[in-house]
Amino acid sequence: MSQEAERVYTINLGKAWLSPNNQRAKRAINMIREFATHHMKTEQIKIDQDLSQAVWKRGIRSPPRKIRVKMAKTDEGYVLVSTYEEEEKTKTVEEKSKAKDKKKPEAPVEELEEQIEEKIEEKEEEAEVAELKKEILEPKEAKEKPKAKPEEKQTKQKETKEKPKEAKPKKEETKKKSESKEKKPVKKSAKKSK
Predict the structure, then answer these.
(1) Measured between alpha carbons, how far is 9 from 2 in angstroms, rounded to an integer?
(2) Where are the alpha helices (H) located in the chain, listed in sequence order?
(3) pTM score > 0.85 for this model?
(4) Residue 101 domain-assigned (yes or no)
(5) How confident is the model at residue 69 (pLDDT cuts 50, 70, 90)?
């Protein structure tokens, strides 16, 4: 195969989302076929199994919005359409591993161990200083807090006791009113009967 026979395209499949949700993946496959027919100038299109799986991976309702494909004309006269992502991934992984190897200078193990020990000692000293500060400050705060708490509790209890006393007279007044209303209609009915 020559260079002209192989091409890489990014196909926009966004219009597949305009079709009903239970036909989107089918429509995406058909769009890939139409795209290949138009750009490769042939009606004989074969879609690779990996490409089909990439489109159907998330189900019939949510195909990808776009996909990168490689189209190649074969000697038999048809076009083979396959995914291009796999080749890109392998290239980028190789490039990244080479870049990491170049960037990492090899340092002696002993120097690294010494640096780690120094950092550990610094953190231990900081922790000891922090503990001393806490010990010094805690007794003062502990003495102040108990004094403030009983005063708050006493005021809250007084407020709650006063409220029920106010509520009791209201209930008694309403009872007296209801009793007086009941007696009056009884007297009226007695006068009418005479």
Answers:
(1) 17
(2) 24-40, 49-56, 85-103, 109-193
(3) no
(4) no
(5) very high
